[in-house]
What we know:
- By secondary structure, this protein is α/β, with parallel strands linked by helices.
- Helices cover about 40% and strands about 15% of the residues.
- The protein folds into two domains: about 5-170 and about 345-365, Rossmann fold (3-Layer(aba) Sandwich), CATH 3.40.50; about 175-345, Rossmann fold (3-Layer(aba) Sandwich), CATH 3.40.50.2000.
- The protein contains 14 helices and 13 strands.
- The two termini are about 30 Å apart.
- Mean pLDDT is about 85; it is low at about 365-374.
Amino acid sequence: MAHHGYVADVSLTLVNRTGAYHVCRDLVEGxxxxxxxxxxxxWNLKREPRGLIRSLFARAMILELENLERFRxxxxxxxxxxxxxxxxxxxxxxxxxxxxxxxxxxLCHDLGPFTHSNLYPANIISLYREAYEAIKVVGPGxxxxxxxxxxxxxxVFGSRFRFLRVIPLYVRSALTVxxxxxxxxxxxxxxxxxxxxxxxxxxxxxxxxxxxxGLRERGYSxxxxxxxxxxxxxxxxxxxxxxxxxxxxxxxxxxxRWLYRHATGFVLPSLLEGFGLPALEAGQHGLVSxxxxxxxxxxxxxxxxxxxxxxxxxxxxxxxLRLVDMTEAERAERVANARAHAAALTREKFLQRWATLLASxxxxxxxxxxxxxx
Length: 374
């Protein structure tokens, strides 16, 4: 029987506007020949829902996830039951609303609920543990965004899966092209963070490090922008109470281009990253980054960024000073390294790697699955 294509479970796009959202959207829209449907929660739709519909879908989906035992009694799992159809899950969590099969594929960005459980609420950890247990039992194909994430996955769950493939993420070009506009409240030199206000992004320690660094007294400010996350209220309070820290909240594409093009350096010493793409994106704009010292980040940036222990406020403060005070020769070398590394991580190459995988899988769909030896 011929394999007709995949259902793309894009449920994460209902609640996510970070890098994972763009990866999901670009993959489905960039390779339409491999997909026969897009599933948003329990609905197959041709277009991404917007506005009130999106909000209603998101709330209903979250309600179901938070009450799985109750809903399982009367809601059937949504998935493609045809032998010629597989499902690609763009987040492991959403296998809980389907019936995962060996011919399916799951994309994994990180193992945060297992490796950094202190960063997640107990209910999220419980849901992800249940999801990964279902994945482990079935052994579908797994795709990871970095070697570090795959290695961590194998350490926790073993290697008895149909395949374990690494397809690195890519540097988005959208933020490098177009007009720019300065946000009205930004004056003088500044350091920049672009990232969701989540605990794992470590904003609190960076704000404290900025206050300790003395950079405010030298005329610098620290700019934060990004979608609201699970630590938004805490970060907003710290920003208001720390001189020189400005939380811009929402910014337009034109404003974010201006920020990237005029910042002195980029700051994101995360506690957890699946790949560490922001530092490469900043390098494309000519910025040196300050990032956390852990395997995924090292894999992403190598020697292009300044790496610090993300739990050390002192190291972060010292790193902020290095961003400001480094010589132009060192800055130029680090930026050149970042751009060279990013040149190998384009959207086109990302899509080609996925296309090769999916074409191979479509041809192999009727054959018995093989167990990967990693």
